[in-house]
Design a protein that fits this description.
The complex is a heterotrimer.
Chain A lengths: L1 H5 L1 H18 L8 H22 L4 E4 L10 E4 L1 H25 L3 H19 L3 H19 L5 H32 L4 H11 L3 H18 L7 H8 L2 H26 L8 H21 L3 H20 L5 H31 L10 H4 L1 H14 L6 H9 L7 H21 L16 H19 L1 H8 L11 H22 L4 H7 L5 H20 L1
Chain B lengths: L1 H18 L3 H23 L19 H32 L4 H6 L3
Chain C lengths: L1 H26 L4 H14 L4 H9 L1 H21 L11 H5 L4 H23 L8 H18 L7 H26 L13 H34 L1
Classes of the chains: A mainly alpha, B mainly alpha, C mainly alpha.
Chain lengths: 537, 109, 230
């Protein structure tokens, strides 16, 4: 029995893949309901494996074919990968519930969607670098198809931009793998970790590190390389946008964590500072763009960029409290950003417009959706009692004691609050007269997300100790947190009322700023050179 | 020496990506980077020299078979990506009447 | 202009780093993989061609998803190209220009040999250069030549896609047989000590399945492009 339980990670990959193909092959009316069956089976498999893991805690390695670890492909599980697997299954289930009604007769869509789920779960579990590259490319292809699923001109354009830029990133990731293989004769992450620890101080290993990190930064949407993200969000449907922001970007960040924390952790390249500053710049640029946008989805898309920056600020401090804060923020962001996109999707569908200033009175017209949106906005701007607060205050340890860093962190928070005050203008105003569609599954999906945001915000101590095995000392009920947040709200509101709403020229300039594809690649070269310079000098 | 030549191929592809203004050219630049990468890996596997990794007859020294096995995968990945990208190009041409990045990206709304 | 010059300067610097790391590599490269496969490859996998041994045995999981990538891309390409899927095959070569007679005649001559060569490469992939992916590509080329010979030959993409997906499920199934015989997924189901001929049954089956799948996938992609050409 234990033998069988140890093989469950394979089923986590193949259940959605096989179901996706079955749905594609049998185009009957009832087959799309099989996607829920697949989701339920996945959850059962996951919890069976979790209970098995609880009995034998620690690092689990599953080598396929019974070969030695150094030769074969293997899956690896620890607390982090299990957390991410659960997050992926959860978000996919919620988005499936959200999308099911309009897509009920579209078998192809379910094929791509479930296939992507299997691939994503594989990417999280794999312990082999080349296998990781294959999964990265597969996600790129599937996400491209999902982005251009509507088959309009702009969606093709965003699709090809995404496809080419991310392929270049993945190819550079592969060049790093090539060098590592030739130095150490293996591409297994765990074996490489030990080998790099003992004999990693070489030019070629450093170079491989730089190239792999730069490649994966494209997918993670770090500062100069994030341009594909707003384009893709602009054209994709709300469900797909939620998937893209909530999970696909997080997948790249997960790979980055695996590289930094596992593969190269003992080489000691001391890149913490560089990645911290890249995070800061990403956050500030993202937030600046977000303030100037008028399109609901663009505001949310640029917010993903800025939040990725905040996560990077945390993740860069490996092994310290901010690192765990960064990981927790990835989970939290997956929840509240999906909630924001899904809620905005319902509004956009009913109001038939994406412009923030043209949507009015959501609070009276769609009370449940509006309440959930408020929860998500409070979470993302870091209000106490909500989940964003916990992870942000953990990341704050990274800036303690350094005045410039604290000021920048303050600015980022202020920008977030301001742009969500802008976003919240959709809530107020008179009730709009619209034809409402009844879709209980959709409402359930956003309520589930909203409740999980609240749940993590209130019970963070249990969650942090069960996932990371650490205790968080932040006291939730301290009155100063509420005062701080109130201050942010007041300053943010004043800034919004007297600066942003006037729509001065700089904001218009920023709003219409677009980076061409050549320039994006030029930025990639520059980025590569900067990282090279920092590592070698 | 030959691994260094393959790197020139990769960098030429990168130069092309950062300067070309045509979508089809960009697609081919990605293909060039990929070919350079494949050649690089095969060349690095052949640093010591040796015969092909097929053990029929009397073989004393072989080249590393792993790069060859991995590069088959990379070739398939590359070809599928090129196919998808070219299909998107055709569709973009049908919608915008142009395959210049400038004209395509300028007309977003 | 400034941009191009600065680009060249940056690329030259990156080139320098590349050269340094390769020079470093030439002093310290590992021969672990090479030695391991030279000693154990044939006895463990039963494949004389070590490359086939690796992608059908040691790293079968990668090959599964390589096939999966092909499926995803084929479905994506056919979805993006907008024509109805039931429509019969394209006839654009007739529309645009008549294919030269010389070309058609020679294609007729070459076609059976190409097909035979492709099938040979697939079936003998474990003892000689070749394998499922390579042979599949050759078979696909042969089938494409058929379009030149007889444009009226009709294949429906829908059928191709269905067969391709069933084949993918079969490949996963064949890869999983070893779980019932050995207790571990994705390897040769026969015992490690079995003779080469017995192990070859598995290798040939899997190579043939992959070969057909790759050939169908490439034909489907090409057909989708043909329809766009009109």
């Amino acid at each position: 029995m234990n033998d069988f339980l140890a093989q469950i990670p394979i089923f986590l990959v193949f259940i959605p893949v096989v179901f996706s193909i079955i749905i594609y092959l049998f185009k009957a009316k009832w087959t799309t309901y099989l996607s829920f069956v697949s989701q339920v089976l996945l959850l059962i498999a996951f919890f069976a494996y979790l209970s098995f893991w609880r009995l034998h805690p620690g690092d689990h390695l599953l080598v396929f074919g019974g070969w030695s670890e150094r030769i074969g492909i293997s899956f690896f599980h620890d607390g982090l990968s299990l957390t991410f697997s659960f997050l992926a299954i959860f978000i996919f289930s919620v988005i499936l519930m959200y999308l099911f009604k309009f897509r009920r007769k579209d078998h192809k869509f379910f094929f791509f969607f479930l296939f992507l789920e299997g691939i994503f779960l594989g990417m999280i579990q794999t312990n082999d670098l080349f296998n990781m590259f294959v999964f990265l490319e597969l996600t790129t292809v599937l996400v491209t198809v999902l982005i251009s699923y509507q088959k309009s001109g702009p969606s093709f354009q965003a699709g090809i931009y995404y496809l080419l830029l991310n392929t270049v990133g993945a190819l550079f990731f592969l060049i790093g793998i090539v060098f590592l293989y030739n130095v150490f004769g293996t591409i297994n992450i765990r074996v490489l970790q030990e080998l790099i620890g003992t004999q990693g101080d070489r030019t070629v290993v450093k170079f491989a590190y730089v190239i792999m990190m730069s490649g994966i930064s494209v997918k993670a949407a770090l500062f100069p390389l994030f341009t594909w993200l707003p384009k893709a969000h602009g054209v994709a449907q709300s469900g797909i946008s939620a998937l893209l922001s909530g999970l696909v970007v997080k997948g790249a960040l997960y790979v980055l964590i695996r590289m930094e924390r596992f593969l190269f952790v003992e080489a000691g390249f001391h890149m913490n500072e560089l990645f911290f500053w890249i995070g800061v710049v990403t956050a500030i640029v993202g937030v600046t763009f977000a303030i100037s946008q008028k399109d609901m989805k663009q505001i949310l898309a640029y917010h993903t960029v800025s939040q990725v920056g905040i996560m990077m600020m945390g993740i860069s401090q490996i092994g310290l409290t901010p690192f765990y804060g960064g990981v927790l923020h990835i989970i939290n962001h997956a929840l509240f950003k999906s909630l924001l996109f899904l809620g905005a999707g319902i509004l956009i569908k009913h109001y038939q417009t994406k412009k923030v200033y043209e949507i009015k009175g959501a609070l009276k017209t769609f009370p449940i959706v509006a309440v959930m949106l408020i929860i998500a906005m409070l979470s993302i701007s870091g209000a106490p009692l909500f989940n964003g607060f916990v992870s942000k205050s953990m990341i704050k340890y990274a800036v303690k004691g350094n005045f410039i860093k604290e000021a920048l962190f303050f600015l980022i928070n202020l920008g977030t609050v301001t742009s969500f005050i802008k976003f919240s203008s959709v809530l107020f105003g008179p009730k709009a007269i619209l034809v409402k569609e009844k879709n209980p599954l959709q409402i359930i999906s956003i309520i589930v997300l909203g409740l999980s945001c609240l749940g993590i915000g209130l019970f963070y101590q249990v969650i942090a100790s069960s996932i990371f095995g650490i205790t968080i000392s932040t006291n939730l009920w301290e009155i100063s947190h509420f005062l701080d947040y109130g201050l942010f709200l007041v300053i943010g509101f004043l800034f919004y009322r007297f600066v942003v709403k006037k729509d001065y020229l700089p904001f218009q300039k920023i709003r219409h700023f677009k980076l061409t594809f050549e320039s994006a690649n030029y930025m990639f070269v520059v980025y590569l050179l900067v990282v090279l310079g920092v590592v070698f000098l | 020496m030959s691994p260094i030549l393959t790197i020139i191929v990769i960098l030429v592809g990168l130069y092309g990506l950062a300067t070309s203004k045509n979508i089809i050219k960009s697609v081919f630049c990605v293909t060039i980077i990929e070919s350079g990468l494949i050649l690089l890996f095969l060349n690095l596997g052949n640093l010591e020299g040796g015969s092909i990794p097929i053990l029929s007859g009397l073989v004393e020294n072989i080249v590393d078979p792993i790069p060859q096995a991995l590069m088959i995968t990379t070739i398939v990945i590359g070809s599928t990506i090129t196919a998808l990208a070219l299909m998107l190009c055709i569709k973009i041409f049908h919608h915008f009447g142009s395959i210049e990045w400038k004209e395509v990206l300028g007309r977003e709304e | 202009m400034i941009r191009r010059v600065s680009l060249v300067v940056m690329l030259v610097i990156i080139f320098g780093f590349f050269v340094f790391s390769i020079l470093d590599l030439e002093a310290f490269f590992s021969t672990f993989g090479k030695d391991y496969f030279f000693e154990n490859g044939l006895s463990e996998t039963g494949s004389v061609n070590l490359v086939t041994g690796i992608y059908l045995d040691y790293r079968l999981f990668d090959s599964l998803f390589e096939a999966g990538l092909l499926i995803a891309a084929v479905s994506g390409v056919t979805w993006i190209s907008q024509h109805e899927i039931t429509e019969k095959n394209a006839t654009f070569m007739l529309d645009r220009q008549s294919t030269p007679t010389l070309f058609v005649t020679f294609s007729r001559l070459v076609y059976p040999f190409m097909l035979m060569f492709g099938i040979y490469v697939i079936l003998f992939g474990h003892v000689s250069p070749g394998g499922g992916f390579q042979g599949g590509a050759i078979v696909a080329t042969a089938i494409l030549i058929l379009y030149y010979i007889d444009v009226q030959k009709a294949t429906s993409i829908d059928k191709i896609l269905t067969i391709e997906k069933i084949l993918f499920l079969t490949i996963i199934g064949v890869g999983s047989i070893s779980f019932f015989t050995k207790g571990t997924f994705f390897t040769n189901p026969f015992d490690l000590s079995a003779s080469e001929q017995v192990k070859a049954i598995y290798l040939i089956t899997l190579n043939a399945l992959i070969g057909i799948k790759v050939a169908l996938g490439l034909v489907a992609i090409f057909t989708a492009f043909l329809k766009e050409g009109r």
